[in-house]
Automatic annotation (TrEMBL):
Protein name as catalogued: ATP/GTP-binding protein
Top-rank taxon: Bacteria
UniProt cross-references to SUPFAM superfamilies, sorted A to Z: P-loop containing nucleoside triphosphate hydrolases
Transmembrane segments: none
Taxonomic classification: Bacteria, Bacillati, Actinomycetota, Actinomycetes, Kitasatosporales
Pfam families (UniProt xref): AAA_10
Native species: Streptomyces spongiicola
Length: 468
């Protein structure tokens, strides 16, 4: 029984100063059990300025990301790599990200759309919603006055034109140009630029000069005219594919008038091109250089260059070198390059491993969706992910990804609004299965958060220690 004097003293003290906190006996427990009382706290986010992506799985906090807001303080480079197997939400993330970025007035986006259904690219609905006409590169349509991009467009510098021609040829041949072939190309290009003045020079002019070089071209190097012709023969045969082969019509004429490079969204629809053919990296090289010299300029706009099937770029040494230069150049002008790749092994084990490593190093933001365990471990080694992140990648469900923003690693649930849904899920937005999937997603979300916390508890239990 308590002392009456102590009771009286406590009552008087409580009246004057408020209730006094009671003293509790110490408790001995394990770290795993203590989590039920002192719940784990999430790492700090990236701030509240930029584009909302979704929410962090562990804490439930909103997740906001914007490379232009973070660049210089938390990000050494504004470039972004998105990885993951098909069907896990990469496409939905890309589309909502672009739609939300375009709400800012100083944003502009170019998309290389390499996938599609029903004869149009994946981004067709979004382009229509914004009143944009996609630039559809299609050999069949090009023959009927379709879209053309001229590698010799006067808006591209002479140096840029020659670099582009070399890249096209090297990609198609699978090896670099030797000195003699490079000389023949250089001579033909210089002659065309000097003599064609009443119109845009076109590839046909280059092919003609390679096949029929002028005597003065040979005299300049004190070589025989037949030698110059022989040196340029292979180059002429490669360029002939763009003039009279399976890619004819898209690049062998003046640039189509009316392409609006000031539109907020520019979509290059490559869905009619065989994704596994050599044509795809050639197309990406031409578009990349053409954009470098006609689109990116110092006007204080923030630009996003998003490339679907980006392994076509990173896996070719010559195209990778071209884009590596573009990334370095564009960083000074506010360019964020977004590369979408299914498997990192497609890149790091390819022919352009060194160039791929350089591009990956520039990507300070990495988003990884579900992968198989072996692929996840390989990805973790290359990207330097923490062990806990590597372990959960194979368990991720669609819409959830590991985000690594220059070492700030979070597990993020991407959220799609009702207004965005019909534009984002282009192949199944209005189907009954989509409605069922939404219901399942809502039910799974609570289960996923509980499962993540449970796995975290089990890991901590394995290294259990006592605390007082």
């Amino acid at each position: 029984m308590r002392d009456p004097l102590s009771v009286l003293t406590e009552s008087f003290t409580s009246f004057l100063f408020g209730k006094v906190e009671t003293t509790r006996s110490p408790v001995r427990t394990s770290t795993g059990q203590a989590q039920a009382v002192y719940l784990p706290t999430a790492a700090p986010g990236l701030g509240d300025s930029g584009v909302i992506i979704g929410r962090e799985v562990y804490s439930g906090k909103g997740y906001v990301y914007d490379p232009f807001q973070l660049y210089g303080q938390q990000l050494p480079a504004p470039h972004w790599l998105v990885l993951g197997e098909s069907g896990n939400g990469k496409s939905a993330l890309e589309k909502t990200y672009v739609l939300r970025q375009l709400r800012f007035r100083d944003r502009q986006v170019v998309v290389l759309d390499a996938q599609g259904e029903d004869g149009v690219g994946e981004w067709n609905l979004i382009a229509q919603e914004l009143g944009i006409t996609p630039i559809r590169l299609d050999p069949r349509a090009a023959l009927d006055d379709g879209i053309r991009l001229n590698p010799l467009d006067p808006s591209i510098t002479t140096t840029g034109q020659l670099a582009l021609l070399r890249t096209i040829i090297e990609v198609a041949m699978g090896h670099g140009l030797d000195e003699r072939a490079g000389f023949a190309l250089k001579v033909a290009h210089a002659y065309v630029n000097e003599t064609v003045g009443d119109r845009q020079p076109v590839l046909t002019d280059i092919v003609d000069q390679l096949r029929h070089p002028k005597p003065e071209s040979a005299a300049a190097m004190n070589v025989d005219i037949d030698d110059v012709r022989a040196w340029g023969l292979d180059v002429a045969l490669v360029l002939d594919r763009l003039v009279d082969g399976d890619l004819r019509g898209m690049f062998d004429g003046p640039t189509t008038i009316g392409i609006d490079l000031d539109a907020p969204l520019i979509v290059f629809d490559l869905s009619h091109i065989d994704r596994n053919s050599i044509a795809m990296p050639i197309l990406m090289a031409i578009v990349g250089v053409w954009l470098e010299h006609t689109w990116i300029r110092p006007d204080r706009k923030k630009r996003i260059f998003l490339v679907e099937e980006a392994w076509h770029i990173i896996n070719s040494p010559f195209v990778a070198q071209l884009f590596q230069r573009l990334l370095k150049f564009g960083r000074r002008l506010g360019l964020s390059f977004v590369a979408v790749v299914h498997h990192l092994s497609d890149v790091v084990d390819g022919a352009a491993a060194r160039e791929a490593a350089a591009i990956l190093k520039m990507a300070s933001t990495r988003t990884i969706y579900a992968q198989k365990a072996d692929e996840a471990r390989a990805t973790g080694r290359v990207l330097g992910l923490p062990r806990w992140a590597v372990e959960i990648i194979p368990t991720l469900t669609p819409g959830i990804a590991v985000w690594d923003v220059n070492g700030n690693v979070q597990v993020v649930k991407h959220l799609v609004t009702e207004a965005e849904r019909p534009l984002v899920y282009t192949d199944r937005a209005m189907t009954e299965s989509a409605l069922h999937e939404d219901v399942r997603a809502a039910e799974q979300e609570a289960e996923e958060r509980a499962a993540f916390i449970e796995r975290q508890q089990r890991r901590l239990d394995s290294s259990e220690s006592t605390v007082a």
